[in-house]
Specification:
This protein is of the alpha/beta class. The chain is about 40% helix and about 15% strand. The protein has a seven-stranded mixed sheet, sandwiched between helices. Strand 2, helix 2 and strand 3 form a beta-alpha-beta unit. Helix 7 packs antiparallel against helix 9. The model has no long low-confidence stretch (mean pLDDT about 95).
């Protein structure tokens, strides 16, 4: 019997005050503009957000899903997120230490903004919530950052994505800048600006999600204990290397996911 593969796209938008940072600033109007590309797809989509963005997201999505039959918008508060409860205080405390500041040679969000890491680390918990809520009876949940696609809307509007025939249901699928992942020193890698796996988009079949969450929690916990941390992408890199046979890796540049998994 051939499995009926039912992909469901998941994304989120939360205010981490990025429009007020000194570096790597980004307007939330820009994010909402980019987000519209994913919202235009003819797919079941679950969006996690806070109250301030609800109307804009609802209005954008309704253009492409007029009856909102393929849409779920879940409003949450940042303090209620699983990653916030698990990691925020530890991240904040670590980033305040002089030892960490001395090792963090780059003034980047994952080294200076604990709320940034918190939101990035919550991606898998949003996938789990969507799965456990059985939204759209999905059996593989596809993470897509709000800013994943930045081209013209016409490239995506009313199209179905991804092609189920291209999805590997046996293990999570990650996109990577390189065909192989090699890390000589985990701590140095976390503090570096080198990354392999993209946090922008990945596929997790239902049966693999609990394993991946457990492995990522272990990576983050061990990193914090040893007084270092990195972006979700660096945490994915480290997690992957413990058991590469349990994951599928696809070489890709940024935001090439659409053509790679198009119908």
């Amino acid at each position: 019997m051939v499995m009926d593969i039912k992909p469901v796209i998941v994304q989120a938008l939360f205010d981490i005050k990025r429009d007020k940072w000194n570096h790597f600033t980004m307007s939330y109007h820009t994010y909402l503009h980019w987000m519209r590309n994913v919202l235009s797809l003819d797919n079941p989509i679950v969006i996690y957000t806070e109250e301030k963005f609800f109307k804009a997201i609802f209005d954008n999505r309704k253009v492409f899903d007029p009856k909102m039959e393929k849409t779920r918008i879940i409003v949450q508060e940042t303090k209620d997120l699983t990653a916030y409860k698990l990691f925020y205080k530890r991240l904040d405390k670590l980033m305040q230490t002089q030892e960490f500041k001395g090792n963090a040679h780059f003034d980047v969000p994952e080294m200076t903004k604990p709320l940034y890491n918190t939101i990035m680390f919550n991606k898998l918990y949003w996938l789990r919530h969507a799965r456990d809520s059985n939204f759209f009876n999905g059996n593989v949940y596809v993470w897509k950052d709000a800013g994943t696609y930045r081209e013209e809307l016409e490239l995506y509007a009313h199209k179905k994505w991804p092609d189920p025939k291209k999805i590997d249901m046996s293990q999570p699928t990650f996109f990577s800048h390189h065909e192989e992942i090699s890390i000589h020193n985990i701590k140095h890698h976390a503090f570096s600006q080198m990354r392999f796996i993209h946090g922008t988009c990945f596929f997790v079949p239902n049966d693999s999600l609990d394993y991946l969450i457990s492995e990522m929690e272990y990576t983050i916990d061990e990193s914090l204990k040893q007084q270092y941390i990195g972006s979700d992408e660096k945490m994915f890199d480290i997690t992957y290397l413990r058991a590469p046979q349990n994951y599928k890796l696809i070489k890709s540049n940024w935001r090439e996911y659409f053509p790679l998994f198009s119908w």
